[in-house]
TrEMBL record:
Keyword entries, A-Z: Membrane, Transmembrane, Transmembrane helix
Lineage: Bacteria, Bacillati, Actinomycetota, Actinomycetes, Streptosporangiales
Composition-biased stretches (Low complexity): 183-193
Protein known as: Tissue inhibitor of metalloproteinase
Species, as recorded: Nonomuraea jiangxiensis
Region of interest: Disordered: 1-33, 164-193
Length: 261
């Protein structure tokens, strides 16, 4: 009688002696619904947490690699530049991606040259991305441009510039810059307006003739600090997030299919 009772106990109780949440029905083991639901919930929470971490990595990597410019006096901006001039942006294009990434190439019709070989036209290259310290010039707008030697970056562009160089939009015209001169509406730049300190650092310009055929004389490129390519980091983090989301979706579909069956 005792042996009969003992022999029937594994078939009637819901959990085994180890508390594993397994039910015995006809010699087969089935996971208890509560245990399966708890396991599914933990998995979903873990995947959601990983997706959140991947998204945070994307945001923080973008912010960490954003362009940051050190404060620079007008005199230092002029001293660091190969060419300083005022001119109107007349053309713009983007080169194909190369060793240094895609570059924007701008052509300027100069009117006054404050430093460098005077020329009626200058071609300046800059990074496409503002996060990589690229400066976006607007076609038809007049600028005060600070440029360094850019030989070798883009063959036809002898000069290079960026958002930390001191470039700024200025009022239309062809005359020398005057203190407190503001740029055109809606075109304010991070460098600010033209003030007395900047005009003093620029000195007297050379007026350029519109018929001058030569461009600025290119000099050997100097070693300059390059910004890290944050786009690869951001792209990798985004791919991780997409993979996690796809995995989460697949698990949910399998759980639903299992419940329906």
């Amino acid at each position: 009688m005792i042996n009969a009772v003992v022999g029937e106990m594994p078939e009637s109780r819901a959990y085994d002696s180890r508390g594993t949440g397994l039910q015995h029905h006809g010699g087969m083991h089935h996971r208890h619904p509560r245990t399966a639901a708890r396991s599914s919930s933990v998995t979903l929470r873990l995947l959601a947490l990983l997706a959140l971490v991947a998204a945070l990595v994307t945001v923080t990597s973008t912010a960490a690699h954003a362009c940051k410019c050190a404060e620079m006096t007008p005199a230092a901006a002029v001293a660091n530049a190969k060419a300083v001039f005022t001119g109107t942006a007349t053309a713009a294009r983007v080169t194909e991606s190369g060793p240094v990434g895609a570059r924007a190439v701008y052509t300027f019709r100069a009117d006054n040259v404050y430093k460098g070989t005077p020329a009626a036209r200058y071609t300046v290259t800059t990074n496409v991305d503002s996060a990589a310290c690229g400066y976006s010039f607007t076609k038809g707008t007049r600028y005060l441009v600070f440029a360094t030697s850019g030989t070798g970056i883009v063959p036809e562009a002898g000069l290079s510039s960026g958002s930390c160089a001191g470039n700024r939009p200025v009022a239309p015209g062809t005359g020398p810059l005057r203190p407190t001169e503001e740029g055109p509406p809606g075109q304010a730049g991070p460098a600010g307006p033209v003030d007395a300190a900047l005009v003093a650092a620029l000195g007297s310009p050379t007026r350029v003739s519109a018929m001058s055929p030569q461009g600025v004389q290119a000099q050997p490129a100097r070693a300059t600090a390059t910004s890290l390519d944050w786009r690869w980091t951001a792209t990798g983090a985004a791919l991780v997030a997409l993979i996690l989301i796809a995995g989460l979706t697949l698990i949910i579909r399998r759980r639903r299919a299992a419940r329906q069956s």
